[in-house]
Amino acid sequence: MGAMNVSSRRNFLLRLISASAVAASLQALPPDRRSGLWRLAAATESLPQPGSPTLNSIKRHHRLRVGILVGSAPFASIDQNAHEVRLITAADPPPLHPATGGHTVVGLDADLAAAVAKLLGVELELCPINQFDALFDQLGRGEVDMALGGLSRTASRASALAFSLPYLTSGQEVFVLEERRFTTLAEVNQPAVRVGVRDGATGQSFAVRDLNRAHLCSYPSVAELFVGLARHEIDVVIADGPVGRDFALRRKLPLFSVERRRVTTEAIAIAARQGDSDFVEFLSLFIRELRQTGEFMHLARRYHNWLRVDR
Question: CA dist 106 to 10, 103, 115, 134, Å?
Fold first, then answer.
């Protein structure tokens, strides 16, 4: 579909803003009632066909295709790892989401994708993938409508991708197995120290910039990165805070953060293709409404063990 004219674009955005105002008016209600009424309001409104090419395609095919980067809780875990997450959260286990290839996925990002599909009244098709570059290529080729997976919104990525408002604030931490091994980043930044990073992750960028004297070791996945740490192939790991806590929870091993702080602060958001600003605006308003109604906290509470110092 071609570009929207000014009038139809204005009407589309006004309807989205009106929906946000409805969400704000529900804030005084208890969370369980807010959630139900929010979905009811979305379902009973009579709206025109979307002018957004992406939303129009989703509605026409009655399917939301979501690329999801799998590998670690709380964002997205697959198959056996997904069942481990449910065991850790046995008091309030998150749902299992079917994915392409006969896989199952569990995680906050899968829950968010399901919420978007439910709001749009379409089926969800989760497409799991385990590498950043492959995920972004999949999105760029139009094989999926949006992408999730604990994705940090950076200027470099925004040169080729569009991002929603952030739904989570997190950051990279420098993790070690022995608390007294390194007490400062200056001690880590030495030629004899082997620093493990994941290919394409923001932790890799931090290491190249701030730990350039250390010996960098790249791994293709989170699982291989932390296996390398457990086998003492590397001395430290740079990873998202929740990802490090995931390793500690699963392995039941102590894991310590050097200087006990984040070394970066990152906004985690939904990624989409550039060129469809109305779809990105829709995703941003979706995130805003989740927060205004308390729905996001309802989704995130199951993952408290991973997110206790984030959000």
Answer: 37, 10, 14, 20
Q: Are 138 and 271 in contact (CB under 8 A)?
A: no
**272 phi and psi angles, rounded to 5 deg:** -145, 170
Angstrom CA distances, 214 to 5, 195, 208, stand at 54, 7, 9
pTM, to two decimals = 0.79
Residue 19 CA to residue 24 CA, distance in Å, equals 9
- Give the per-residue pLDDT at 99: 98
All domains in the chain, ordered by first residue: 6-169+267-307 (3.40.190.10), 172-264 (3.40.190.10)
Q: If you count DSSP H runs as helices and E runs as strands, how many of each does the chain have, helices first?
A: 14, 15
CB neighbour list of residue 24: distance below 8 Å, 6 or more residues apart: 292
**Could you give the 3-state DSSP secondary structure of residue 22?**
helix
Q: How many CA atoms lie within 13 A of 210 on its CB side?
A: 17
Per-residue pLDDT at 33? 45
